[in-house]
Design a protein that fits this description.
Elements: E1 2-14, E2 19-26, E3 30-37, H1 42-50, E4 56-62, E5 71-79, H2 82-86, H3 88-104, H4 112-127, H5 135-147, E6 161-163, E7 168-170, E8 179-180, H6 182-191, H7 206-223, H8 232-236
Antiparallel strand pairs: 1-2, 1-4, 2-3, 4-5, 6-7, 6-8
Helix pairs in contact: 3-5, 4-5, 5-7
């Protein structure tokens, strides 16, 4: 039996000389994996264009109990992403977001709030004309709420440290825990006030933004052991001044 689903393409991995494995996060079934035949035909090229990272698609899939791979019957674009694939800065952000999501999303069940957040974020990135340097920082911070790891900012006080292990602000260090000193802890608090609507007002230079990216990725790794080595952050760090 085939199901109609909405999906967000995370990545494509070469599986054999004839097939690739495409990982798609779906609204109703969570993370799904599909074996997709390679080829040089016009139909194969069109299908590959639909399955680029962060593509928003409608699909029909056969869900087979006990099988790791599902059968992809049909896939169609449901939201065009012209600038994400033509603008090098947007494309670098998209590659980073898709790579990170491929690590942190493992659940084979739907999560409507998480799916909606990612879908709307991709659409916003596509629509934004400029000043997107803080997009990935804003996206990462608020993604944490959907993963259950967003920092608790209610206890913030000037001069407090940020306990990365427990995700809270504390007056001093706790033995055995990873911490940020008060200056960087204040930045974590400021990020809680950042939205896609006001992120242009947050002025960071390249060094500050790159440091924030490193800190947030470290925080994610601390709370999710599935995050291994990421290749895309190095590209992002070279793009924005």
């Amino acid at each position: 039996m085939y199901e109609k689903l909405r999906g967000i393409v995370l990545n494509t991995i070469r599986y054999s000389d004839k097939h690739n494995i495409v990982h798609i996060y779906t609204d109703g079934r969570g993370l799904m994996s599909f074996a997709v035949q390679q080829g040089k035909t016009h139909a194969a090229r069109m299908r590959n264009a639909l399955l680029m990272p962060l593509s928003l698609v409608d699909l029909e899939a056969a869900v087979r109990s006990g099988r790791d791979l599902s059968l992809l019957r049909e896939v169609r674009r449901n939201y065009p992403l012209a600038t994400i694939y033509s603008d090098p800065m947007k494309n670098a952000i998209a590659l980073f977001v898709s790579e990170l999501l491929a690590h942190v999303i493992q659940e084979p069940e739907g999560n409507a709030a998480l799916f909606s957040y990612i879908e709307q974020s991709v659409q916003l990135l596509e629509q934004m004309p400029d000043q997107i340097a803080n997009f990935h920082i804003c996206f990462l911070y608020h993604l944490g709420a959907h993963l259950g790891i967003q920092p608790n900012v209610e206890g913030y006080r000037s001069g407090y440290w940020f306990d990365m292990t427990d995700g809270v602000f504390v007056p001093g260090t706790v033995r055995g825990h990873m911490h940020l000193q008060p200056r960087e802890a204040q930045v974590i608090y400021l990020l809680s006030r950042m939205t896609f609507g006001n992120m242009k007002a947050f002025r960071f230079n390249r060094e500050e933004r790159n440091r924030m990216l490193d800190v947030i990725i470290s925080y994610y790794r601390l709370h999710n052991a599935a995050i291994g080595t990421l290749r895309s952050p190095d590209i992002l760090k070279q793009l924005f001044v």
